[in-house]
Amino acid sequence: MNGATRVPGTLTSAWLIARKDLAIEFRTRTAFLSALVFAVLALCIFYFTWDESIITAADRAPGVLWVVLAFSALLGLQRSFAIEDHDRGIDALLVSPISREALYIGKAIGNVIFLGAIELVAIPALALFYNLHFGRAMLIVCLIVLLAMIGIVAIGTLFSAMAVNTRLAELLLPMLSLPFFVPVLMDAAQASVRVLAGAPMSTVWPWLKILIAFDIVFIVACTLAFPFTLEE
Questions:
Q1: Angle CA(39)–CA(218)–CA(104) in degrees, nearest 5?
Q2: Most buried among 5, 44, 171, 185, by the most CB within 10 A?
């Protein structure tokens, strides 16, 4: 029919959802500012609470980075579906002519961009506090952070959808997500420690390969499982 509305494809629908979420966050900035303040405050606390004569700042930096990333991610992931709770926006998305896989991918894209914006501030702040040099090593660390964010978001977006309608969503999301964050964070931490210590890339690649494998498994598994989380 000439007058029929053309249904957008999966990737187009996903991008529209991501853009909607980012536009809402840009107007309110509540979750972003909360996560950003937490990240910078955590960096300061960790810096001033350890004795540098025992553990140097450069040795502490990788652990601090991943603690900050993990908990900043939880703050961002919490808002992923919470913003749809107002006026039951999730119902409008479910009856729209888009696949539930597109809904999941769109939410995940929005979450990756949200976390990426936080890390754009947190990583330079980490380098400043812990006297890290901006160079090839930091670029590799940024790549590791990106790979870790993809895995964390893949898991967290799924559990955010599961927890949003529960009474204790703020407590349930960390309880569900953190155990699954462990393999991603462990591999990312091992890779970043070696990079910042100046170890050869031959010792880093095995951890990066495992991290990439986890990302692929989590993306595929969570995309396939997501439609079932929205069943009544």
A1: 80
A2: 185
pLDDT tens readout for residues 116-134: 999 898 898 888 888 887 7
Cα–Cα distance between 154 and 102 in angstroms, integer?
13
Q: What is the pTM of this model?
A: 0.86
Contact criterion met (CB below 8 Å) for 144 and 211 = yes
Inter-residue contact 198 to 137 (CB < 8 Å): yes
CA 127 to chain centre: 20
3-state class of 7 per DSSP? coil
CA neighbor of 42 nearest in space, from 112, 118, 114: 118
Q: Give 183-222 as a DSSP string.
A: HHHHHHHHHHHHHHTT--HHHHHHHHHHHHHHHHHHHHHH
CA-based end-to-end distance of the chain:
34
Rounded CA-CA distance 150/137 in Å is: 20
Residue of 107, 105, 109 whose CA lies nearest to 80: 107
